[in-house]
Design goal:
globular, 307 residues, Farnesyl Diphosphate Synthase, 15 helices, 71% helix, homodimer
Chain lengths: 307, 307
């Protein structure tokens, strides 16, 4: 069987991820109805599933037969990502009332339930990593424990949570601890806030598929470039896009005086920086002989996307 | 060497837990200073360390040499408990400004940083379970993965998060989804909100110490009784106590119209119910031949404590 096209792979992966998320998310009466509803509202809010795609593409590049065993990790990472969006949207954080064209969770259920739904997804992600795929095989058990550590470190204070805290300080929302970001610290902030979980997405896929340390390291560097490009392009789209195509209020970053790549470097240089990330990502894949798969095409999609 | 007294055991365990928490919690520059500070503010706020004591006492009852290997799990559970207190205290939840006689975290750092510090402790707990004790021994690796699942399930939507959501509904804070608790559903709410993590505390100690399924099951039942007693006594102390001895505003539950054991059953019957839990907890230990340790004395302390 020949390789699927990128679109075929992404469509298959997205359908499998959505079906698996539906299976994995709790239902009443094992969990209270309001928490189940709220968690599902945000998980099935039309996200791009970028991180799980990266997990599945990384596992696929290492071992084409690893798809099934990588699916729980892909879903767990999407649960972590979704929880972070719910908490970031809260009035105490970015105060967003609209995401992907729909009211944010706290607008619908109130701040308390939104905090709890985020917390529920957070815990569920780790329970899922521990539970699936069900096995007593010590090799797979060791890999699963390694995923817990990768995701825990990426989501925690040195990663995503730390990045969001710096972002909050830079936005002037922590009056006792103000902070001004320059080009270097903007990159460091994003490396934590979005970069860490994107790197973990690729490393988890490679790890569960049985990659060795060198390959996991190469996928880490690839994902670092892709993550940086993803953020630069997000910032560019926020300037160039309109509310209809990106599903949130365009220009919001500028209005909130948040530092962005276009604001610091200009649009032309920002575009060029994203292309440089793409070139480095491709080179990393080539050096590690990881070109038989969809990772290069995914990096290209990240940089060239229009929404 | 004979057995330590309960006080000797608790003092030794508390000192080791506090020292380990200090080692485990991140410091700058690996994590941003504000998040490190905020996490430490709440972790070192003078908590009783009841859950980690239960973990260590359970591991000790199974294998007296298991103390060191149970310490990370004990600390991880305390991190989960601390994160839940931070989030529960938020204005969007219970809106508490004082805990253990000190301003709550969001009063000091703002709601945004408080949410993030809670999230950071939550992720760090799982990273810690995966990381420590460091080992390649497949038996211990499998036990560690089992702890991740126990804690993930206990903290998640079917456990702690679900219980807090029901509590929020019962307090009238989710106008779209109101709920009135009777005696049965009050117990079910507490079984999730505090019971699940207390049961996980004991089961994790037993699991990491290598207990078999029967012993883990007995410690689960023991901890279920202890957890219920803990909640009943908390409710009693809220009525009988004063702000000085319990470090929060006494009578707050009644003022907020929260359902409590004394409100539903009266004080005398509530006291009797706590004693019945103690009797059942002791019987469970006796039946499982787990009397050589501190678990019975801990159950007694839970029921007889005055603060």
């Amino acid at each position: 069987m020949g390789r699927e096209s990128l679109d075929e792979f992404l469509n298959r992966a997205r359908a499998q991820v959505d079906a698996a998320l539906d299976r994995y998310l709790p239902r009443p009466p094992s969990s209270p109805a309001i928490v189940c509803e709220a968690m599902r509202y945000s998980v099935f809010a039309g996200g791009k599933r970028f991180r799980p795609m990266l997990t599945l593409a990384a596992s696929d590049a290492v071992d084409r037969k690893a798809f099934e065993s990588a699916l729980p990790a892909a879903c767990a990472i999407e649960l972590i990502h979704t929880y972070s969006l719910i908490h970031d949207d809260l009035p105490a954080m970015d105060d967003d009332t609209l995401r992907r064209g729909r009211p944010t969770l706290h607008v619908v259920y109130g701040d308390g339930i939104a905090i709890l739904a985020g917390d529920g997804l957070h815990a569920e992600a780790f329970a899922l990593l521990a539970r699936d795929p069900a096995t007593d095989d010590p090799v797979v058990v060791a890999r699963k424990l390694r995923l817990v550590q990768l995701v825990g470190d990426a989501a925690g204070p040195s990663g995503m949570v730390g990045g969001q805290a710096i972002d909050l300080q830079a936005a002037g929302q922590v009056p006792s601890h103000p902070l001004t970001l320059d080009a270097g610290s903007l990159r460091a902030m994003h490396a934590r806030k979005t970069g860490a979980l994107i790197r973990a997405s690729a490393m988890c896929g490679a790890t569960i598929a049985g990659a060795d340390t060198a390959v996991i390291g190469a996928l880490d560097r690839y994902a670092e470039e892709v993550g940086l490009a993803f953020q630069i392009v997000d910032d560019i789209l926020d300037v160039e896009g309109d509310a209809a195509s990106i599903g949130k209020t365009a220009g919001k970053d500028a209005a909130g005086a948040k530092p962005t790549y276009p604001a610091l470097f200009g649009l032309d240089r920002s575009h060029a920086m994203a292309e440089e990330c793409l070139a480095r990502a491709r080179q990393t894949l080539a050096d590690a002989k990881l070109t038989d798969g969809h990772l290069a095409a995914i990096a290209e999609w990240v940089v060239r996307r229009k929404s």
